[in-house]
Every structure is written in structure tokens, then in C-alpha cells.
Write a structure and sequence with these properties.
mainly alpha; single chain; 2 helices
Length: 69
Amino acid sequence: MHQEQPPLEIEPVAAGPRPVRCRLCGRPLTGAASRRSGLGPACDAKLHPAGPDIRTRRHEVEQDALPGL
């Protein structure tokens, strides 16, 4: 009448945080900030390049001397 089925095999779940991969290149992320953003440092730099340093934007301006000095 009723056939007995074999027990289901359950795969063990790894303890600890689940692996998070970079959304751009797929490499595993290890740093906390990278895991939060979903991007590795190299891919984050590609998508969000750093702004220019303010010191590189300075330039010399030719101007007349102030009178009386």
C-alpha cells in the first residue's frame, strides 16, 4: 500500500556570514564597507572616482601690486 520513502538529504549550512560578491565583477567581498556597498574597492573607484585635490586647482594669477605697498 504505502511505500516508505528514503529520508531527505539536507546539506549542512555553513556557519558564519554568507559570501557576498561584488555587483560589478563578481569577486568575493571581505571588507565590511565593501560588503555594505556591494562593490569592491577597485570597482567602487571605477564607478565613483575621487574628486580632484583642491591643491591641484590652485594657479598663479598675475596682478598689479597694491598701491602704497
